[in-house]
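Page header: ASSEMBLY MODEL / two components / 522 residues total.
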Amino acid sequence: MRYSTSGYLLSETGKSIWRNKMSSFLSCATTALSLFLLGVAFLININLRLMFTVVQSQMEIQAYLRADATLDQAASVVQAVKKIPGVSDVKYVSKAEALEELKAMFQDKASVLEGLGEDNPLPASVRVKTAAAEDVPRVAAEIKKIPTVDDVIYQEEASRRLMSLGRASQLVSLGGMLVVGLVAIMVIGNSIRLTIDSRRHEIAIMKLVGATDGLIVGPFLMEGVVLGVLGGLFGAGMVVGLYTWVVGGLESALPFIPVARLNMDTAGRMLGIMLTTGVAVGVVGSVTSLRRHLDV
Amino acid sequence: MITLRGVTKQYGTGLLALQDVNLEVKKGEFVFVVGPSGAGKSTLIKLLYREEVPTRGQVIVGGKDLCKMGRREVPFLRRRIGVVFQDYRLLPDRTVGENVAFALMVTGYGGRDLQKSVSQVLSMVGLRDRQNAYPSELSGGEQQRVALARALVRNPDLLLADEPSGNLDPQTSLEIFKLIERANMYGTTVVVATHARQIVDSMRKRVVELKKGVIVRDARRGAYDY
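Prediction written out in full:
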């Protein structure tokens, strides 16, 4: 049997978790489950954002040039469009390229187009992408002002809907994350409170023999941190496992749906959020419930 | 060592536990506090280790006015006082050795010295070979001896006991009181609240009798009754 004050905090924490195996396990499991939900909400949020950006990047403005536009004029249109704020990509499509695309679209039914002969009725055009979907109407209006541009086409309704849908979904998923986070905090806080309540007797005895508040709080706090971290790690493990499984299934069943890859960056951010919440709740929960028992 | 001046304690419930109590206990004294249940004995003990503060009056222990003492100073007061209760109050999930060691550890004591002190005090109460047992594996008398060891391991200036033999048979009670008396011989001031009539009568120490919160008798070499 050895006693020492130097290792007091760590050994007390370990012993205390071991002595209260059942309640430690329950706290840890509660934390893991709550944080698991938080992680799920986080990934849903990430995916909605990704889906929105992908669809957004597919929104395109087509500016048809006048039939008599020369190559020089086309080049100056491209230059002018590039200068419009919010434009992310400009691509010139010549008359010949437009015809090739059309043929490619019809593929085996290319014979339909044979009637056109040498005469290519398709106009040259400039395809413009914007950084954000909400910029589409404004950019389109600017392009229309360029003299060489005959007509501007974009999916007005679609871009407007996409915009509002994007905002709404992001708000909803952020709100969901907030709610889940709050629930996690309450659940974890409560389980810590119960743990400490069940040990008020022990705390009273410690005070009786002259333990300072710090000495009493230390191990409890450390325990909260350790259980928070453990819960966070388990929760993250569950999220990663579930996500990998779901994504694997989704990618083979619905390959066209964009899914966020769980790369180091995303996983790191998620783990960060989960661990921070876990530890913060562990600390705050322990301190607030201890204060009631420490009052002389 | 202890001075009580005009001490009145009224609890939030309205219960008047002590009324204008004046008491002086010198260093090294041994005092029995006797009286029927509800006379205020426990309250008197609680005032001495600042579990409670008086409604009116002054409580001075070891030169310190406990009423003026800040919350942060209380642990340091308690490190100089050993307290023993009827219900032992041991940490149930720690061994005998750990329970005793805890009292030393909170004072920042550690290492080899700590082990030595723990072993010594456990030998004194005759429990050296039970160091690794848990409180639930011990008899009531043994548990009380552990509690006493915990109280004495720091060589306290003052030992307080509230019905230390309340749950024990006469023979075991006597052993406990012998240990308390021994601590007193080494210089520790002792205040014991008790109902153990035979022991009080046989030990012939100073007896302070409380009735309804008032000191009705203070005899130098007294007995349980007049």
